[in-house]
Amino acid sequence: MIKISTDNLVIPSKISDRIYLLDTSLRDGEQTPGVSYTVENKIKIARQLDMLGVDVIEAGFPITSEGELESVKKIAKENLSAEICGLAMCNKKSIDLALDCDVDRIHVFIATSNLHLEQKLKMTKEDALKQAVEQVEYAKSHGVKIEFSAEDATRSDLDFVIKIFQAVEDAGADVLDIADTVGVLTPSSMRVLANKIVSSVKIPVSVHCHNDFGLAVANSLAAIEVGAKQIHVVVNGMGERAGNASLESVAMGLKHLLKTNTGIKLDKLMETSSLLQNLSGIYMPPNTPIIGENAFAHESGIHVHGMLSNPATYEPIDPTEININRKYVVGKHSGTHSIKNKLNQLGFTYTEAQLKTIIYKVKLLGDQSQKISDEKLKSIVNETINQ
Ligand code: KIV
Ligand code: ZN
Description:
The protein is an alpha/beta fold. Helix content is about 40%, strand content about 15%. Helix 1 runs parallel beside helix 2 and helix 13 packs across helix 14 (about 375-385). The mean pLDDT is about 95. 3-methyl-2-oxobutanoic acid binds near residues 28 and 151.
């Protein structure tokens, strides 16, 4: 059953009315090549994520290092509203270290694809299934929530993924996560795969999508369309290789495209993104959706003309919803409406002839590849008016 909304969006009826976000900025996000956070900065990020309203904070992978262990322990003691989660491999040593951190949830993973089983783990499917069940039972016996991920699930034999998910569900897992570890699904493949998994188990299904083909957000939303209830996200879409599904795009996509809800305080998205950019040293390109410098900037004359009569003409989202001001940029694509609007904002009075000269000069500079800042525009106007 599907519903088609007035804006031509197809809204499948399987979509839950509350979607949970597990933020892994402190774990997969920190796997961004060249990025590592100090313990103090990890705590700062965890507090910000909590204020933002994520449901689960994956605070780290305790087996990685002393510092990682310390930061997961400290974040778990912060008394945040979000659930605190630690990642563990599917073995006792890794699970024990996560348990030592006193986290609320342990995220246990094992690879399920033949490629990973044969080439990396040197295990048979039967061994992997047995180990998964034993370790989930072991971790669960300590009274924590268990999220189980099938690593490389999307390149695995689907029957085997379902078999291992059903087995760990019986062993006490609380959430099952489909990892698109190398980002190879398309939204239509994700819908088929996630639908089969959702209908084969009783507990909530989650997705963890990588962005190797730029489809992490689309694939995450596709899983939600067929009944998945949780998405793994990372602020600014950071993460291993091309990164993970961006928290900002997922949160806005869930609200505006799938018409469902998260706990995210959308007006805190920009400050969260800025904090992570500053602490990681990874700055987002201007055309990044939602939080990029150009996400709500308009230059072309036709667009600015439309925008001045109704912003909905060229903006799918009202930027004030996320605490961002739209910008009108002057350049060679500007038209009369846009330059007039800018001159009025800057407090200039001018004649029609002067306006024509100003537009001419702006276009001339634009053709020479020059950027027209407000300062530059002011000097053009002053020069024109004084002539
Ligand atoms: O990409 C991946 O498969 C992971 C797992 C640990 C879930 O990050
Ligand atoms: Zn990952």
